[in-house]
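Re: folding output
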Amino acid sequence: MMMNVINDITKRKTGKAIPAGKTYLVLWLHVFDEALVRIDSEADAAFEAGYEGERNVSTFRNHMKMLKELGFIDFRKGTKGPMQYVLLLNPYKVVKKLHAAGLVPDTQYAALLERASAIGSSQELKE
């Protein structure tokens, strides 16, 4: 569900279909400690997100920048690239803020609230 929310937000914000949700999923699947992800190969991460071809890394980077702009992540450069160290921020709090800004429709936000409640994360949205 979070992937779809991210994709919809990016489309509302940019007017373009930017599937940044796939990039977020790759990051989430690689998180190892305290919401920190280390990307040693942007090409591998881009491939895992489904980006192939000559522009795979640039597409991945653009989607990472969009995720940062929306508040889902923060990143810092390292020896392996400009986005080697990634911090995943609490997605429920980010969506709550984006909903207040009018980027997440009420129906989608309500569905996210229901899902959060079902998995025991509803407190994340109340804070």
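--- second protein (sequence, then structure) ---
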Amino acid sequence: MARALVLLSVVLVSLLVNQGRASDNQRLFNNAVIRVQHLHQLAAKMINDF
């Protein structure tokens, strides 16, 4: 979980640095990282609830 948060932080900082200059591939990758983090959080919650 900590790795996902660090990775998300790096992605968000890169977005701020680029200020909209990210290529389509970078934007798609950033979206994928955010979705993976969300899925990871859902899985962790499901395991804790189980």
